[in-house]
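#struct-help
A.M.: can someone run this one for me? Single chain, 198 residues.
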Amino acid sequence: VVTWDRAGLFYRLAGAFALAGLNILSSKAISRSDHITIDTFYVSEPQGGVVENPNARKVFSKAVNDALMLNKDLYPEILAQARRHEKRQLFSLTSDNQLKAAIPPRVDVYHELSLQRTILEIQASDKIGLLYLIAHAIYQHGFDIAFARIATERSVAMDTFYIEKINQETSADTNNLLTLRETLNQIIEEQTRTGTSE
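D.P.: on it. Structure tokens below:
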């Protein structure tokens, strides 16, 4: 996806992929100095494998338009889709590709002085809409995602974000980052309890 960069772009794209019924296996998002962002996503069908759904691109395009041009909140539709996915899973065998035991969720926040960036590292069980919720929380706390590395393996999300303040005239203080970490911990713990993928 190549477009003009804007605050909150990443979470809107993540929501559009979720509505298209696609899992984000990995992603690299890079924002250039000329305000162009180049985001590369590797996606799969919900149960894995090459995307074969012929409607996925159309649904994704409409969701991106709704989110970017109409400022539509995609989360109610994402939540409804997650519930439908859970019902289908109740009638299917557990995938051999999934871990047999849940992993402990973890959120780490630290400053990388050499890059002059704040880095978020998140480990959690992968659920539909998880990436949307994480990226949206980052945006709501006044941060923008300058770079993202998303990795999902055996239903475990291991995501890294380089974030910076949306308002460049202010710096990220410790209280701000602690509040963000607390919010992200609540999100991944809630997702783990409810069982509602990226």
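A.M.: thanks! Residues 174-194 form the longest helix (21 residues).
D.P.: also worth noting: The chain has a mean pLDDT of 85.
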